[in-house]
Specification:
By secondary structure, the chain is an alpha+beta fold. It has 2 domains: 55 residues, no CATH class; 78 residues, no CATH class. Helices cover 46% and strands 14% of the residues. Strand 4 and strand 5 form a beta hairpin. The longest helix has 29 residues. Bound molecules: zinc ion (3 copies). The site of one zinc ion has 8 residues, from loops.
Length: 164
């Protein structure tokens, strides 16, 4: 009897293994059958953002994409654009040196140079990353004020530490 049970256990294990292999082979051949199993944050840096990207699990082999898919990449792109547009520390304006307002204008105007991303920038110190529509991005008065306040804070802290 125990011999029969052992054979049964072995047969079951073999059957499960075969089923797994068939599932994997079928996925390799015809692709995963993705099922939506929930959402997670896109991993964006926008504070308080309620963005969500879908997570898929394969109905055949049980593989999970953990939210690494084209929809997630698109969600992250949208969030990044929103973050750039909403950031009050920066503003779109014309370059004070050459008058360019977009990265392509900066490419044609004075003292421009190409940055690694392929966009052009110039000596008026726009940010490396332009707005999504190509407008040059500069520190705004609010942004400059914030940086100055931060620097003053650091200087004050250093002074206090020096006296202590
Ligand atoms: Zn699969
Ligand atoms: Zn987001
Ligand atoms: Zn310029």
């Amino acid at each position: 009897m125990s011999d029969l049970l052992t054979r049964l256990e072995r047969a079951k294990a073999e059957l499960e293994q075969a089923e797994r292999e068939i599932a994997q082979a079928s996925c390799a051949e015809v692709g995963h059958r993705w099922n939506f199993v929930g959402g997670r944050n896109a991993g964006c840096e926008l504070i308080g953002c309620d963005c969500s990207v879908p997570v898929y699990e394969c109905a055949t082999c049980g593989d999970c994409d953990y939210g690494h898919n084209a929809e997630a990449a698109e969600a992250l792109r949208v969030c990044t654009e929103k973050m750039i547009l909403e950031d009050q520390d920066y503003e779109p304006r014309a370059c004070t040196v050459c008058g360019a307002t977009t990265s392509s204008e900066a490419g044609k105007l004075c003292r421009s140079y190409q940055i690694p991303s392929g966009d052009y920038t110039c000596d008026g110190h726009p940010e490396e990353e332009s707005y999504p529509d190509g407008r040059l991005r500069f520190l705004s008065p609010a942004g400059i004020e914030r940086i100055n306040a931060w620097v003053e804070e650091q200087v004050a802290a250093d002074r206090e530490n020096g006296q202590a």
